[in-house]
Amino acid sequence: MSEKNPAAEPPRLPLTGLRVVELGHYIAAPFATRLLADLGAEVIKVEPPEGDPVRGWGSAVDGNAVWFSVHGRNKLSVTLNLKDAADKAKLKRLVGTADALVENFRPGQLERYGLGPAELHAVNPRLVIARISGYGQDGPYRDKPAFGAIGEAMGGLRHLTANPGQSEHPPPRCGVSISDDLAGMYAAMGLVAACWQVKGDPAARGRIIDVDLVSSVFSLMEGMLPEYGLFGWVRQPQGAAIKTAAPTNTYPCADGKWLCIAGNSDLIFRRMMAAIGRPEFATDPRFASNALRCENVAELDAAIAAWTRTQTGAEAEAILEAAEVPCSRLYDMRDCAEDPHFRARDLVMQVEDPLLGTVLHPAAPFRFDGVAPRDMVRWTGPAAGAHNDQVFPKEDAP
């Protein structure tokens, strides 16, 4: 797959024709615009002359960050110095042609550049502006700095990732910048909703969307807030299990792998007990219902773990799958990249990156009839400023 000219792309994706300017750095805003670009939007990523700082993160080939191949895919890259008057004028002219803008500076930074919503709406009254920050555009914590880990911590997620009885160890992060990604998803959703409203009303003015890392994580806390409000309950870390269903846990295997098993319905539980050679558990009154299994889960988990320790992860998975018991080994990236289901559905795609060579890309997380997953990756993350000449008309050239 080689770099393509987006103007040559057929209008098959749902956001074709939507023009979005990205003033994003690091993760949250670029993640939002990556989703929009995968859906067909024309995303113009505005970077400082030295490029997005994330271009210096992680592994690289000849100085080109591997992650950026995905992070910047399907986007046009231009470079501007937002402290320079001439470049700010170029940005305003670009905003005048756009439907939306996404930014994730600290609150007030855009205004300090002279590019706040008032100035942008003076140029384009129908512009939708999505703003992503650590704590939001108002409130007492508005001006505090924040990265993804802070969103996890304050939003309630990191408290839940601890293992019970291991208070001497800090609760681990989930391994990716989940709060940035969540905020990016919510920003993309809010942007599309606002653009839909503006499109449907000729008199509508552009909306301002305020998304933050903390509330994005907090939104995932299920029924924990009403439980606290009504009963004073504070959900505590559960480890790999949950209190409301059994057996649902992750069990050790003979080869050092772990097997996640969700056998909590009565029918599945009986099939599972037969499969692991413990049919007596299926008829034991102590395990006759999910509620009773939860009360006696320690004995049940011990019996399941005793069986998984006699099997490799793949062997145990095959036995339980034959009995139609939901289960999976804990996949690492090698497992994902080599799994036949991932490959058959093009969840893992081999693409050609002009900066890196042949690389693997994850598919976009949505499917549309008539569009192959590979068609949604039109080009890989470009070099900083690669599209300056394409985006800016000649009168904007220095």
In short:
With 398 residues, this protein is an alpha/beta fold.
How would you characterize this protein structure?
By secondary structure, the protein is an alpha/beta fold. The chain folds into two domains: 6-219 and 346-396, 3-Layer(aba) Sandwich (Rossmann fold), CATH 3.40.50; 248-336, formyl-coa transferase, domain 3. It contains 18 helices and 13 strands. It has a six-stranded parallel sheet. Helix 1 crosses helix 8 (178-200). The two termini are 33 Å apart. Keywords: Transferase. Pfam families: CoA_transf_3 (PF02515). GO terms for molecular function: transferase activity.
Please give the CATH architecture of the largest domain. Answer: 3-Layer(aba) Sandwich
* Tally of DSSP β-strands: 13
Look at the structure and give the mean pLDDT.
94
From the N-terminal CA to the C-terminal CA, the straight-line distance is: 33 Å
CATH topology of the largest domain: Rossmann fold
Contiguous low-pLDDT stretches (5 residues minimum) are: none
Strand order, biggest sheet?
Answer: 5-2-1-6-7-8
The coarse silhouette is elongated
CATH class value of the largest domain: Alpha Beta
The structural domain count equals 2
What structural class results from the helix and strand content? alpha/beta
- What kind of sheet is the major sheet? 6 strands, parallel
If you compute it from the alpha carbons, what radius of gyration comes out, rounded to the nearest whole angstrom?
A: 25 Å
Percentage of residues in strands: 15-25%
The fourth-level CATH homologous superfamily of the largest domain is Crotonobetainyl-coa:carnitine coa-transferase, domain 1
- Please estimate the helix content: 25-40%
How many DSSP H or I helices? 18
